[in-house]
Amino acid sequence: MVERISTGISSLDRILDYLRWGDNVVWQVDEIEDYRYFVKPFINQALSQNRKVVYMRFGEHPAITEPGGNVKVYNLDASSGFEAFSAEVHAIASTEGEGICYVFDCLSDLLSAWATDLMIGNFFRVTCPYLFQLNTIAYFAILRGRNSYQTIARIRDTTQLLLEVYRYGRELYVHPLKVWNRYSPTMFLPHIKLEDDFVPITSSTETARLFSRVHRQGPGDAGRWLDYWDKVFLKAEELMEAIRSGDPVAVAKEPEMIDQLCRMMIGRDERVLRLARKYFRLKDLLEIRKRLIGSGFIGGKTVGMLLARCILQNDSDWDWEAWLEAHDSFYVGSDVYYTYLVENGCWNLRMQQKKEENYFTLAEELRRRIREGILPEGIREQFRQMLEYFGQAPIIVRSSSLLEDSFGNAFAGKYESIFCVNQGSPQERLSIFEEAVKIVFASTMSEDALAYRLQRGLAQSDEQMALLVQRVSGSQHGHYFFPDLAGVALSRNPYTWKEDMEPEAGMTRIVVGLGTRAVDRVDDDYPRLVALDQPLARPDSTLEDLRRFSQRKVDLLDIVLNDLDTVPLSSISGLKTFNAWKLVAMRDHETTRRMRELGHHQAESWILTFDGLLTSTPFASVLRKMLHTLEEAYQHPVDIEYTVNFDPDYAMQFNLLQCRPLQTAKRHRQAETRKEVSYSEIIFQTRGTFMGGDFSQTVQRVVYVQPEKYIKLSVSDKYQVARLIGRLNRLSKSDSGSAMMLVGPGRWGTSTPSLGVPVSFAEICNATVLVELAGEKEGFMPELSFGTHFFQDLVEAQILYVALYPLRQGTIVNLHALELAPNMLGQLLPEYREWEPVVKVVDFTGPEKDLWVDVNFDTREVKCYLVAENNGSCSAAAKF
After folding, report:
1. pLDDT range class, residue 521, cuts 50, 70, 90
2. Do 441 and 367 contact (CB within 8 A), yes or no?
3. Binning pLDDT at 50, 70 and 90, where does residue 554 land?
4. In whole angstroms, what is the distance from residue 358 CA to residue 241 CA?
5. CA 187 to chain CA centroid, nearest Å
6. What is the Rg, in whole angstroms, of the alpha carbon atoms belonging to the chain?
């Protein structure tokens, strides 16, 4: 038999046929006092039957009830964001368990924190079913006229009971709109309170009189269809019109409106908000709104790009309009992401995944559900209109999460960006675009992203995924589409390989084609590194070095294949429409001659030096000025991504694609010099080829992948070695008091096992020192990837990176101590004992010896050496 629960008002019990466990009861009222009128008897009734009452306190209105007795109050912070707030309510409900009576503050008050009705509807959609599952009874309130019809409709669809409360003069009315699973002949009529009883109004005359009064009091239908978000922007547009007309009152109100819109769209980080309030005008924010699909935050990547452009356009000392290509982007608000999760039944799984024990194990299932979800039809229609605007021009769908590109966290390369070549019928293009959106959404659950958030203390943070949809910068050349040049640039140069170089002048990595080869560690290829104060200086100077350490492949979009492609440089050199060729390429006469001697009579070989660009154009000076202007505004070093396109007269235009605070290595005070180190004590020593600030500490564990053994492995076995490194990395995290150094052949993190160890960053993120060892004979070659996503990862994780070239003058590599040491791998991971010939784990934990790594940033020297504690000196090899 179903247990009937009293509302505390007997006449209301008769109207509703009592409450049931699992009921969510929503009261739509004009004033909070009307809600309080019904809450008080409900609480008293529950307490009289010794039931526990939980009050969720978050509203701006006075408290509905007070703690005491069997009433427990939870004070919640709605400004923490939808996800954090919803997760906290979910966690409280899980802890409190079944059979609880809940009272929530007015949901309409969440508008001031979340700015959209949509998110209130999402909150109710994820909270109400969970409380129903726990067999609770929960009271909620919404203020009439504050929420849109669409939000009320979503609440009505989800809740078990929805009741309207009207007050006209001294008369109080209750009108049940929905009562789930029960019915009576008068249940859904309005009821008037007469003394202590609610009586149904059966007269049409009285009913008509009541509703005519009620509708006169509220807003018109047009206003009720609008989300709170839209209402705010309507006010902003009216204010903009008044400002244009010269109204001084409107001008005075502009800063307040800018602040409100920034808090609705830009984010919560106060450092970013200060910049936004300073450089965005009201017209800029309204322009953003015109290109925004959905509502919510536009995310860090979008904010950085738009803010940087505003900073440059506000620079009165330089005509940036002449140098900047106009951006042509659309934005998908973060509310779309959350609504997508809610509507596709992903939210409860997401709450389970955030628990420590499920953090990685449930991610794959959640990622699968996100990929298989269905986008709301209203959003799909806006996608159609956007694609009609772009036509068949290539676009890129880029992640723009709330935490991305912030002052504390770059999330460099952690989330997906998907190129859409955008060919085919409208329906085909929409289908491909929707799939790209889902891929980016699902990348929030990738192992690298999860490990990054965990390492940065962000595992429980409100991480909302917005999207930046950009027109791909470039031109069509034959059936290829690509920009003339692309690159990443840093306002501070971490790699000053000459003593007279200025770190403050900045540096850039440039490539021909799409910028993917500039921001990623690409296999067997080298972008051009340029120090902006000495652009022609190169760390490699011989012709053989130029051939070896240069770009040989080009990333581009293939219009025929309708996909991203990578082609050899020779496929580009013959394109007559490629304006920049004379500025970037040098003919390699010797290689051309050898190829023709072998019978390739039409062959031409080129080397991408970019020397013409650096000598014949103002590229370096313009880029340096750009970086300086942005750094000055940010009051912090910056990192940008850009493209450059040339017209037939070689006039250049920059497209500023991204700007974020540069994550810089911490400069530690150099430890007091221990002593002069003899050659026999040195494990390795080099100059210049490292990333990081001053550094001096001991290392307790070295994981050494032995090059000559590794190169003989099959491809599948090399991947097995990478997984083994990941296991050792996790062991290092559990032993937080020790520092680990990884030493391996070629490039850590490569996607080509023949060039190094194909680990993900999540598999090396707990290292303290990362060493890449060159092997000329084996073909292993590190790449000093300053400015890449890999570089950002190392800097943020405070991992010292060292590239060792044993044949380079001044470099010492003496790994005999590691080779002679006992291997601890079998003891640490017995199931991996078979890999002992390839992977050596050496522990330096005894009292008699220490392995030190010292970096002196001023002299650009890094040294690793082994010393004995008992006498301050020993022969490294003799220790084993």
Report:
1. low
2. no
3. very high
4. 52
5. 50
6. 32
